[in-house]
Batch of 3 targets.
Target 1
Amino acid sequence: MNTEVQSFIQKHDLLGCIQCGRCTGGCPVNTRTDLNVRRIVYDALDESMLDELAKLPEVWDCTTCETCAIRCPKGLKPMEVLIGLRNILVESGVIQPTVRDALESAFREGNPWSKPKATRSDWMQGLDVKIAVPGEKVENLIFVCCTIAYDPKVQVIAQNFVKVLNKAGIDYGFVGDDEVCCASEIYNMGEVGEDGLFEMMVEDGTELLNSFDTTRIVTLSPHCYDALKNQYPDLQAEVIHYTHLLKEILEDEKLVFTKEFAQKIVFHDPCYLGKRNDVYDEPRYILNQIPGAEQVEFSRNRERSLCCEGGGGKMWAETESHKERLAEERVRDAKELGATILAVACPFCVLTLDDAVKAKGFEEEMQVMEILEIAGKLIE
């Protein structure tokens, strides 16, 4: 067995797999693509198969929702095997043009969206936003996220958070133009390794964030939350998601929702907030403070939540399946519940689920809203 294959097997503990199939059985995208995680893990033990496995289109179907890891009785993370196979392709240069462009943009501009770094804070125009200064004490350092910073459809998340923080009198400061991608999706697209782009971005990001005198870093995206909390080992400040802070603000009555919002709301648990980090109660607490709203639950909720297919680099990697997307199945379930608002706490979920609502023709019956978008309407 060659050294490369042996290293791959040891890194991902492939010999620990008992081939029970629970990873494939629980995988949400397995129902609509050819992805068979158990088979790939088994075949990866064959030193002659590794390069061929990396070329399988279904390697890019994984959304890194972590269901496979949750289900594995041996405590393995089969999704990491797929990321490892993506890394083989990235190093060979044989990747989708959209993936290549995202990685190159992250290196050049500090974001995967091919947007100029100098326009990262354009969403702040017209708002009373406090920018943190390195070395000056600030209790809450706000980390925005590339998608929220650049996509007009989800900029409302950051804009409304500013309104919430100002209204509640919270001590805060945004990182501002110096902020760069957390590299969560860079990792998921396979740009990892001893000298990989992910490692470089983690090192640079850690140096930047540690330059601020802050008690905690507050992320707007669950993907940033997961990366900073779990993949930045040298960060000095505590990392929380904005739902932690908003729940705290509401509990302390620094902010009270007073406007009626007579809607039937169902909350979609983002994989990176729920399955990967066990944050389930905070979003529900916030939604339960909304006057006049009725809360309902999906049958598949919390750790059983159905993935929207927004993570794992899927914003840049296309799938070959033409079957119904999981996001479309999710909005169909919401419609059957009679929900008028499909609430989320993740920018990727907003984008995938909103597209699904349009694809299903449900626009007149249902609206996808990020929790901060709802909060913004209640304090205007």
Note: Residues 255-378 form a domain with the Rossmann fold fold (CATH 3.40.50).
Target 2
Amino acid sequence: MKFYITTPIYYVNDIPHIGHSYTTVVADILARWKRLNNYDVFFLTGTDEHGTKIAQAAKEKGVAPYELCNQMSSKFKEAWQLLNISYTNFIRTTDNKHFESVEKIVQILFDKGLIFKKKYEGFYCVGCERFYVSKDLDENGCCFLHKTKPVLQSEENYFFRVSQFEGDLLERITNLNHKEHIQILPEERRNEIIGKLKLGLEDISISRTAIDWGIPLPFDKSQTVYVWIDALINYLTGIGFPKGEFKKYLPVDVHLMAKDILWFHSVIWPAILMGTDLDLPKKIYSHGFFTLNGNKMSKSLGNVISPEELVNKYGVDSARYLTVTLIPFGPDGDISWESLTLKYNTDLANNLGNLLSRTLKMAEKNFNNTIPQTIPDLSLVKQVGNIFKENFAYNMDNIALHKAAENLQSAITLVNQQIERDAPWKLAKTDKEKLAVSVYSYLQAIDLIAIHLLCFMPEIAQKIWFLAGASGDIQEIAKKYFNSFNIPDEGFSIVNAKLGNSEILFPRIS
């Protein structure tokens, strides 16, 4: 019952933006979900700090590379603290322990004859930190991602015999019944990887001679480890390799990343693991690129959305919810401040916020701000439970967070519709006992909604739990509930419990 989930380690040539936030908040929600399902969760994130781009950026700023890395890495830590990211470990590739891991893995590959030296000439893109062959460039000879022409470089480097693993990789990716099957998602990305593998694998350079800012090869200190090999090994360093009980968390259960780095994670990384006799990742899931109002986000265009901007406009938990539910995980998607605000007002202010506010006001006005003294009617909360029981867990486990959010909104809408049918404002004048039963049933339903909201909006869910008069620790109650999806016979809120004062949790934003 362990669950090991990773984000990519983010390159410190840029400050955190909504793309980084998206992957990291998704990982955080999945980590929280698995914890509620009683898994021993290891959630790894961090920063990638070596390579040409970092050395060049530091030189331009007139600082040492490590000083620049300290500045930029701290910005990612601050952003994840702001967004309430519950990572287990934050790794930096400039950590001494990571040097040890990289040297150990590279030495193992060298000792097994999987690394050899040869002279190589190829087109090198500094932006991607990788070599390209002509067929991988566009019609103008440019890198598809950066739209710049790679520079022809010639070096004598060390190479990794990745071609040796071509057949094994294809078998593990295509054979669903293989004991080390690698699931690559979404399906179209899997097909792209399979197609490229069938064209044949070329051995790759794993060292550089003209770069000082990196980790020296253990068997040839005149060369440094290629930044991508260095970066991928973080998934071992982060769990304690080569010491301690690092194997406890292998294999990786889910690698999350953007689609531009899928090849390295689904081909090069598994080949390294096979070469060192370590367990292969179970699932590699890539998401698409964001555009803002149809335009590519970039610093030069001034249209990059930062975590701070999201939080300042919507609040921490709302920013988390909006970031991961506006667009499905997998395809490319376009976002805008208008679409974010519309979803905020629709899902949170109008639906969830309205449900909580109107229910608390009824209790405040008619029952002295306490849960009414009445026999619990759990029919409504069981209807809500049926909505969740049908596919909420499936959607969470399969990283369909937008669909899990739809389950949440369906449940909230169901309760709001029941309130309209009951017309409690009329019952207050004609049938106080039925009003008591109705208000109590709304509160029980709100409790269950809060439990399902916990991974997305942990602070808001806790607050709703308190406001609705629910008893016990929501985390512990949620763990028991998700074990069976059964609602306790007495519900969650107890008769005569004091309620919180009604307040506007989600002010409408124009």
Note: The chain has 18 helices and 17 strands.
Target 3
Amino acid sequence: MVIYFKRTVFLLSFLLAGSFVEAKQPIKVLYLTGQNNHYWRASANILIKYLNQSELFKTDIAISPDKGENMSIFRPSFSEYGVVVLDYNGESWSDETKADFLNYVKNGGGVVVYHAADNSFSNWKEFNEIIGLGGWGGRNENSGPYVYIKDGKIVRDDSPGHGGSHGSQHEYKVVTREKEHPVMKGLPEEWIHAQDELYDRLRGPALNMTILATAFSDKSTGGTGRDEPVLMTVNWGKGRIFHTVLGHVGNEAKHIATDCPGFIATFLRGTEWAATGKVTQKVPANFPKNKNKN
């Protein structure tokens, strides 16, 4: 289902992104998008296809008004869904929509924060608690510490500086930090993710946050020289939040990052966990491995 908020263009491509597959009690997903500094039409097509083809989910999409249009009409029915996937980086929601979202999460609604969605709403205190860490949007030391791992320990770094950056796109190794967490259980301890942006210098409250996996942000690619969080979970109220910084979608003909089986598997597993607290999916046979190991 496509949920409209005075959109003038009918996005047939979303209906063609993969028909709903019959499944026993599929998890209802609301995919929320419509403004982004990335190519949200492409990412929505890709991720909705993955969700629906998994046979675990049934996905509706909520598309916001365009930038500069009346945001007061954008009021999705969050409570109807088991999990909300945020692919949104744009103008502020109305106070009513913000309140609806917070009540949804507080009462146990699941949330998936996908890639640039963690750039949003830098001045919305509760949203930043929900995502744990964010970048850009004027974030700085007042937004919370930088959080990363050094020598196997979590560092909360209060140094002054802007929040959010990334170097050049490249393949990088993802290191599992919580191998017993349902999202990560059974995955390799290290695996090579396809060419992608690697977010670094994220900062925020990072309360009730668990770092599931990190990647080394190499200075040779414009990074920090630190092990930066790439997969995280947050508990806020009764809600579960899965946050992935992976999956950049640009204007390329091929979308290498979101085609990676590692991205697909962790995205689907994180979505199921956010909705239910469990993961029933098997690790796919094509899940990537560390190229330096057998």
Note: The chain has six helices and 14 strands.
